[in-house]
Design goal:
With 318 residues, the protein is mostly helical. It has 13 helices and no strands.
Length: 318
C-alpha cells in the first residue's frame, strides 16, 4: 500500500507539466488555431521563470515571469497566424525550434558567468516549490499524502484546468470562443470580435504553457538548470489535447495517466516485468503515437474537434 501511494503521488507530480501544456493548447485550439509550438513556449517559460527565480529568490515572480514569457511566444505566433495568416503548422514548428534554442542559449550564457560552474536555485525558493503537507489535512492517513502533500504547482494546475472548463462551458466569453473555433465567419456576422477573441485566448494559452515550463526547470530538475529541460513534454501535451477530447477537465485525468507512464520505471520490479529502462522511457511517446493514430480513425462526430481548426480566417471571404 505504501508503494502504491508513493506511485500515485509521483504520477501526479510527473503529469503536472503535461496538464499546463494541455490546457494551454486546448484554449489555443478552441480559437481554430493549431499551435505546434507548445514545446517552444514551455522552453521559453522554463528559462525565463528559472532565471527570475534565480535572481529574485521569489517563487511568485518566477511563475509570473514564466507565464509572461510563454504569453510573449504565443503573441508572436498569434501575430503571424492571425494578422498575417501565416501557415499555422510551420509557424508552430518554428516557435518550437526558436524556443528551445533561445532557452539553451540563455542558459549556457548565464551558466558561463557563474563562478560555481552551475546554476542552482536558492534554498528559500526550492522550499517554497516543494511545498509540503498542508496543516491538519496533510496529517490524515493515506488521504493526507494522496491529496494534500504536493507542490503549489499541482494545485495551481488543477485550479487553472477547472477554471478553464467553467470558462469554456458556462460563460459568454467562453461560448464566443467556441463559436469562433467552429465558424469564425458566422461568429463575425453575429457581432463577435473574432480577431480579439483569437488574440486573447492564444496569448492566455501560451501563458499557461509557460507556467508548465517553469515546473520543468524548477521542480523536475531539482532546482538545477540543465539544457533541454522540457524534454519533449510539449509534444505529449499536443497529443493529450486529443486524448482529453478538447475538454480541460478531462486533461486532469489524461495528464495523470501519462504522468504514471513517466514514473512507471521506478515502481515496477525488474523481476515482474524485465524490460530495459529505455523501454519505460519510450513508453509515454509510444502511447502518444498510438493516441494520434487511433484518434485519426475515429469519426469526427464523436470528438469536440473545432471545425475551423487549422484554417486561417480572412474576413473579406465570409
Amino acid at each position: 500500500m505504501s508503494m502504491l501511494i508513493k506511485f500515485l503521488v509521483a504520477a501526479v507530480g510527473a503529469g503536472t507539466p503535461l496538464l499546463f501544456g494541455t490546457v494551454g493548447e486546448i484554449l489555443t485550439e478552441k480559437t481554430g488555431h493549431l499551435n505546434l509550438g507548445v514545446e517552444g513556449m514551455m522552453s521559453i517559460g522554463a528559462c525565463i521563470g528559472f532565471m527570475a527565480g534565480y535572481y529574485t529568490d521569489n517563487f511568485f515572480i518566477a511563475i509570473l515571469a514564466g507565464a509572461a514569457a510563454g504569453a510573449l511566444g504565443a503573441l508572436i505566433y498569434a501575430f503571424l497566424t492571425v494578422t498575417f495568416m501565416a501557415n499555422q503548422n510551420v509557424t508552430g514548428l518554428t516557435l518550437t525550434i526558436f524556443g528551445i534554442g533561445f532557452a539553451n542559449f540563455i542558459g549556457i550564457f548565464v551558466l558561463s558567468k557563474s563562478p560555481e560552474g552551475t546554476l542552482k536555485l536558492p534554498e528559500n525558493i526550492t522550499a517554497a516549490m516543494r511545498g509540503g503537507n498542508i496543516p491538519v489535512l496533510g496529517k490524515l492517513p493515506v488521504v493526507g499524502e494522496l491529496l494534500f502533500s504536493y507542490s503549489p504547482f499541482v494545485y495551481i494546475g488543477i485550479a487553472i484546468a477547472v477554471a478553464c472548463a467553467f470558462y469554456l462551458n458556462h460563460t459568454k466569453a467562453g461560448l464566443s470562443l467556441k463559436a469562433v473555433g467552429e465558424n469564425p465567419g458566422a461568429a463575425d456576422a453575429a457581432g463577435i470580435k473574432v480577431t480579439l477573441v483569437k488574440y486573447i485566448n492564444i496569448i492566455l494559452g501560451g501563458a499557461i504553457c509557460g507556467i508548465g515550463g517553469v515546473y520543468c526547470s524548477m521542480i523536475i530538475n531539482g532546482g538545477v538548470w540543465i539544457s533541454d529541460n522540457v524534454g519533449g513534454l510539449g509534444w505529449i501535451a499536443v497529443a493529450l489535447v486529443i486524448f482529453a477530447n478538447w475538454q480541460p477537465a478531462y486533461a486532469i485525468w489524461g495528464s495523470f495517466i501519462f504522468g504514471a507512464l513517466r514514473v512507471l520505471k521506478y515502481y515496477i520490479p525488474q523481476s515482474v516485468l524485465p524490460f530495459p529502462i529505455a523501454f519505460y522511457d519510450m513508453l509515454p511517446f509510444l502511447i502518444t503515437a498510438l493516441v494520434l493514430v487511433i484518434s485519426s480513425m475515429r469519426k469526427s462526430g464523436r470528438m469536440n474537434l473545432p471545425a475551423a481548426l487549422g484554417l486561417n480566417y480572412f474576413r473579406e471571404e465570409r
